[in-house]
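User: I've been going back and forth on whether these two constructs are worth ordering. Before I decide, could you fold them both?

Assistant: Sure. I'll take them in the order you sent them. The first construct and its structure tokens:
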Amino acid sequence: METIIIILSLVLLMTFAYRGFSVILFAPVFALLAALTQGLSPMPAYTELFMTKAVIYVKVYFPTFLLGAVFGKIMEETGMAQAIAHAIIKAVGKDRAILSVCLSCAVLTYGGVSLFVVVFAVYPFAAALFKEADIPKSLLPATIVLGAFTFTMDALPGSPQIQNLIPTSFFGTNIYAAPWLGIIGGIALLVSGMVWLQYRAKRARAKGIGYGSGHLNEPAPIDETKLSHWTIAALPLVCVVVLNFVFTRIYAWDPNMLAPFVAMKLPLVAASVKNVIGIWALIIALVFGIILTISLGFTRLPKGGLAKALNAGAIGSLLAIMNVASEVGYGNVIAALPGFTSMASSLMSIHIGNTPLFSEFTVISIFSGATGSSSGGMSIGFSLMGQHWLDWANQVGMSPELLHRIGAMTAGGFDTLPHNGAVITLLAVCGLTHRQSYPDIAVMTIFKVLVPLFCIVLNAVFGIL
């Protein structure tokens, strides 16, 4: 019965998220309802457990949420993100329209631009290109999903997206963990996604189905003369990627840097420098990226545009991190319930291949699907089971880098179920409905779920890391 209550709580959270209710409000509601039915006092469960775990998450990741959102917004407002997207689309051409859009999304995502900004920046050019190439507009959302929400988000080593950063603080890894496995997985995602989308476009052409008419939110004509040159626009992205690499892989951080702060008996100090190097490196890279973007694009901002962009990025980051922090708080309340003990034992008993990878895949898939959030599902899964998986990996001599890469890639699978906020936003921007475009997004989701399993098998058979 206790396990059923926990499952019911998850179903309710997923249902309310799908219907558009904020998880900031309803994650604690459903966590405390579950707590109340299992003998855990609701008020201390809320103030001492839920809020404590949420605050820890905010403490660790808020700088990257904030700076990432600001960087993306400045890139958008200066027109630099649009300039890069336009240059790639124009260079690849309308004959390879799907590849053009996919690559433009991939470059922006890997360069540190937030996923939501990528959607807004790429859409006008992508819609115009699809219309010129007479490809059904219904395929456009899935194309953007492939370019922005899959291989560059969490598969390719070095991605500055939060999904690739979260595992570093749990496993002491860095964003370049398991590079070969990530590259192989990334290529598999790109190839399989492109094959499907090209097949769908070819099939539509054979049936005489083109771009279509009467679509909502059609973009206005683009004035190319107002865009920056792509070489200038790309400099901030290069800056973020290069500095991130330098401060992660080359710069020698003093392992005793935290000692004075430990001596101050400050709360929530990281256990080791290696647990925060990935976060520090990204903070430095994004700060310089923001400064460079402002320096290069200041003249393209309207009067008061800089303050507007900075404020919009800052405010947007608050909503994003509070959503995930609430989901993390929810997961930790659930973990404290008696009914979770049997669930945890069952999940840890998944011994396929005698490694924790299948257990990790299962747990993170469940939570990512339930919350409709890759970062939320990953954070809950790692908070609940991360230490168990790490201990298990140490027992069998497995590198923590595998936990990092498989966990990151898994989180971006079932999170794109219909209630996912990014999917809903993407469809709204494109002026399309779930009925029109979600079936192809679902195929991208299936590939995203299958590729981590493929990578687990590759590691088991060939030892690829």
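The second construct, handled the same way:
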Amino acid sequence: MIQIRLSEDERNRLKEYRNTRDSVLSERCLYILLSDEGKSVPDIAEQTKRNEHTVRFRLKQYQKGGTERLKGISPPGRPPVKGVKIYPIILEIIPESPGKYGYIEAGWTVNMLKDYLKREGIGVGAGTVKRV
């Protein structure tokens, strides 16, 4: 069981971060503050509607490096590649009429953008196009 005990200074710093515009950092700080109040990982997960694994991971990160560790952790997994690659392409064609590229529609749709990228040799899913 992970239980974090904070000093008054640490508690105040975390409360300040809770009031920032960075909602991700704010939520991570909430996990720590709730743990300091004596709540268990399952209780924190239920209250914040997050997975217990996520809460446990963030508590461990705080134990290893304090608030700095909460700020700079990248999400696990491979970094996005296709989204970064297709962003400038979509940004370039979106202001144009789809007719200029051989489509009959008046405005771009996700499937049309996906098809256009496929014709350009870039196979992407609809989810990637939507995120971009």
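Notes on the second construct follow. The chain has a mean pLDDT of 90. The chain has seven helices and no strands.
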